[in-house]
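Record type: monomer structure entry
Structure origin: computed from sequence
Chain ID: A
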Amino acid sequence: MMVWRYCDGCEKWIHSEHHRIDKDNRNVICEFCATWLRGHLVDEMYLDMVKLHEGNVPAPEGEASGGVW
């Protein structure tokens, strides 16, 4: 399943093709800036949010590697 997670470092949603798992603590990390990712949207949910927010999907509420929408 493909998912999207929010990166506070890049300030945008990052597709699972660009996630990596930290070997030490198993956190989901951004491939671009090495920031912990948070939130979780499957592709269908993300596309619905894009339509709802006219392309500018806001950051999720919650902690890094936490907050599920």
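Annotation 1: The first helix runs from residue 43 to 52.
Annotation 2: Residues 6 and 13 are 4 Å apart (CA to CA).
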